[in-house]
Write a structure and sequence with these properties.
16 strands; 3-stranded mixed β-sheet; single chain; alpha/beta; 7-stranded mixed β-sheet; Rossmann fold
């Protein structure tokens, strides 16, 4: 939907240079030799923020477009890539336009920012277990006023530690400088944006590649939730991949599922049960790409460590993310985009720029979305490499690493933006007949010559498909 802000006269030339700089960083991170100048980045508006959020949107989507162009180039000339800046910004918010129905609220009633004894803290309570942990630590009922009163008695870093220790998710507000000095901030600063490792050899010959549907025949096993991973697999589905999302029984994300399940089938499996684990290994054996968002060591604990995954599917393109990075004391910490914004200085910088007395986050969940498109670019590059030499690969990144790149673009002293006004779905656009009602989508934000994005399945609820590949 349109996001408006006062016109501030942002220079198109400086915006393009900043966007290309980010695009160059993303392509370097995945080892791509794509020509940055060949990616079309036409000017447009900017989301109102203390950070270059629209630059991040256009650049990260451009990286995915360049990566699919590189894949197509293995069987012919590379197609051109163009990213619409306004649409890129809009897809970082919400692409779905329901017709006569509403998507459920994305946030639990208790979730949000609270003032403690010495600062601010965000409680992330969307998952029932995270909500229960926070309320147990606070000794408060699930009412916002009671939670707010209980938080005032805590120092925010003490409360953060207590909630995390109890199995919940929370983050105290920190300035960027404090994050730089924090052991976890320092660990993230020392990590590459994307870790890449080549793995086992796939002895199967690469299949035919259709430039108009470059991922046709590619199977993607999706073990991700909420936003970043699902954004990645949604994009892969748009270029023809068969995406099978697997969630534990009972898991629900009603506020985001209609947005991110486009093009996918969604199944349930309890990976703590031996029979389901065996079925999952069978699915993995037939997959080309695995995308997962488990914390470091979590898959190992289920008996699905890297060696097991390699043995189940030689040549696998294994792509993963976590919240706070892969090294340092918080490597295993639960986290989400909004929490990383609090920890890394983003919400504090927004507060200062807006001259507000409370945290001001980014206008969209930009860390999630940008990381999602980078994951998609990593998967596409992994498929390209496998077509070239038959070897699989492992890729991993984090929301905190993406936050670092955004902060490094510079912090503005005021909230700047010149408004975006993307074209909505045209009246004659295809109707997406979702399980909740008819809807339409915004036009795709990236156009790859010949390989136009299109999705063969509408968005649908979790757990409605059998855990099997089509044709099996």
């Amino acid at each position: 939907m349109p996001v408006d802000a006062p016109v501030t006269g942002v220079d198109d030339g400086s915006v393009a240079d900043a966007t290309r700089s980010l695009l160059s960083q993303f392509l370097t991170a995945i080892g791509s030799d794509a020509d940055v100048a060949a990616v079309g980045l036409p000017p447009g508006g900017s989301l109102p923020s203390a950070f270059a959020v629209s630059d991040l949107a256009q650049a990260s989507i451009g990286a995915a477009g360049a990566a699919v162009s590189g894949l197509v180039a293995t069987s012919g000339r590379p197609p051109s890539v163009t990213v619409d800046r306004d649409l890129a910004s809009a897809w970082f918010s919400w692409s779905l336009r329901p017709d006569g129905w509403e998507v459920p609220a994305a946030w639990d009633a208790v979730a949000g920012d609270y003032a403690g004894e010495d600062g601010w803290i965000k409680l992330h309570t969307n998952a029932p277990g995270h909500r229960a942990a926070a309320l147990a630590v606070l000794g408060a009922p699930g009412e916002r006023s009671a939670v707010a009163e209980a938080v005032t008695r805590w120092k925010v870093e003490d409360l953060e530690a207590a909630v995390v220790e109890a199995g919940g998710a929370a983050a105290a507000l920190r300035p960027a400088g404090a994050w730089d000095l924090h052991p976890q901030g320092a660990a993230v600063a020392g990590e590459p944006l994307v870790h890449v490792e080549r793995t086992s050899v796939d002895d199967r010959a690469p299949g035919h590649l259709d430039p108009e549907r470059p991922l046709a025949g590619v199977r993607v096993l999706d073990l991700t939730r909420v936003l970043a991973g699902p954004v990645a697999t949604r994009l892969l589905a748009g270029w023809g991949a068969e995406v099978l999302r697997v969630d534990p029984p009972g898991w629900e994300e009603p506020g985001v599922v209609p947005e991110v399940t486009l093009g996918k089938r969604c199944a349930h499996l309890d990976l703590t049960v031996e029979r389901s684990l065996e079925r999952f290994l069978g699915l993995l054996a037939g997959a080309d790409v695995l995308v997962h968002g488990y914390r470091p060591g979590a898959l190992d604990g289920l008996g699905l460590g890297p060696a097991v995954r390699d043995a189940a599917r030689p040549g696998l393109v294994d792509v993963s993310l976590d919240a706070y990075g892969w090294t340092g004391p918080w490597a295993g910490r639960r986290g989400f985009d909004s929490l990383v914004q609090m920890s890394s200085g983003i919400a504090h910088a927004g507060m200062v720029a807006a001259r507000s007395d409370r945290p001001v986050p980014l206008p969209v969940q930009a860390l999630d979305h940008a990381t999602g498109y980078l994951l998609a670019a990593s998967a596409l590059t992994g498929l390209t490499l496998r077509r070239q030499d038959g070897r699989g690969s492992r890729w991993r990144t984090s929301l905190a690493a993406m936050a670092r790149r955004l902060v490094d673009t510079g912090i503005r002293t005021s909230i700047e933006g010149d408004g975006i006004d993307p074209s909505g779905p045209s009246p004659d656009a295809p109707v997406e007949r979702t399980a909740w009602g008819d809807a339409r989508r915004l036009p795709p934000p990236v156009v790859v010559e010949r390989a136009r994005l299109r999705w063969d399945l509408p968005a649908g609820p979790l757990g409605t498909a059998e855990p099997r590949w089509l044709g099996e």
